[in-house]
Amino acid sequence: MAKPGGEGKKLVASNKKAFFHYDILEEYEAGLSLLGPEVKSVRAGQVSLEGSYARVEKEEARVYNLHIAPYKLNTIEEISPTRPRKLLMKRQELNRLMGRQQDRGLSLIPLEIYFKRGWAKLRLALAKGRRGPDKRESIRRKDAAREMSRSFKNKFRL
Questions:
Q1: Where are the beta strands (DSSP E) in 19-81?
Q2: Which CATH class is domain 9-129?
């Protein structure tokens, strides 16, 4: 049971490659409109964010190519695992995203799916794609930071 007044956030799936392939500019939280069997599959962790993206069209946000595996004990009609799913966001956020999405080179990508207070949520990022040299530079920076932290760690040991 979650603590009273706590967030109660349970991470289900994350897109770790997004931080390598994109520069994250802004982050948003959106509710995910799911059918009953899909919620059970998400709770079981049968989700893949690989290759998924979101768009704002006709004043409505949708996520595409989000793969949710079919629930084994499903008794209703068959549901496509990669169907477009509606995102639940505030009107002000949607208007801002519609304006920013027109900028060249910006994408709306999902970073992680989690449950917050019992509701399925999707953390989205407005991101700009990286090229090859940008990726190599970020790897160099991470390696340098790691080496510095190791040297400081060993320097102060007795």
A1: 22-32, 47-48, 53-57, 60-64, 67-68
A2: mainly beta
